[in-house]
Amino acid sequence: MTDFTLYDESNAPEKSKALLGESQKAFGMIPNLHAVMAEAPALLEGYQKLHELAQQTSFNKEELTVVWQTINVEHNCHYCVPAHTAIAKNMGVDDDLINELRDDKTLSDSKLNVLKQATLSLTRNRGYIDDDILSEFFNVGYGNQQVLEIIAILAQKVMSNYTNHLADTPVDAPFKKFDWQKA
Asked: What is the largest CA-CA distance in the chain?
């Protein structure tokens, strides 16, 4: 196993210092994920930009949480599930939805469950989606824009989930109360 450094603004590679400053401003801390990513400034910058763009998609806070957490749970990310639990709570997402996602349950809201299934299909099948799932996705009101937005968010989550697998990123103190293990 490779050891990874948790960088801050004092010891980070020069190109990552300003990026970590942005993390500090956005989160009130430098999340350990960002501290690890700072080793590769292009990764950190790409991740930050995709995180910002994910929040600019057509998805509302519940839908965005469904896409993020579905991918996090599917990828078994010990860091991102707690982090996105905290983010969802901060956004005011209902605890029942948060728990259904964390527990990998069928979602009570049928439209959100279709979104979850479409996200799972794209994730598991590396960009391919089951025709029946795609048809159902369109039938509940989603369109081409939303299926493409899932791909953008999936790219973001691959960056974070895979980094956390490789680095065994320590969960930050504010997220510890939401620790998670795949059932």
From this structure: 52
Tens digit of pLDDT at every position of the chain (183 positions): 569 999 999 999 999 999 999 999 999 999 999 999 999 999 999 999 999 999 999 999 999 999 999 999 999 999 999 999 999 999 999 999 999 999 999 999 999 999 999 999 999 999 999 999 999 999 999 999 999 999 999 999 999 999 999 999 999 999 999 999 988
Question: Which pair of tokens denotes residue 37?
Answer: 């990513």
* Residues 6+ positions from 68 with CB-CB distance below 8 Å: 54, 80, 84, 87, 153, 157
The span from the CA of 125 to the CA of 40, in Å, is 28
Q: Where are the beta strands (DSSP E) in the chain?
A: none
Cα 108 from Cα 21, distance rounded (Å): 39
CB 53 within 8 A of CB 142: no
Structure tokens at 162: 């895979």
The amino acid occupying position 125 is: N
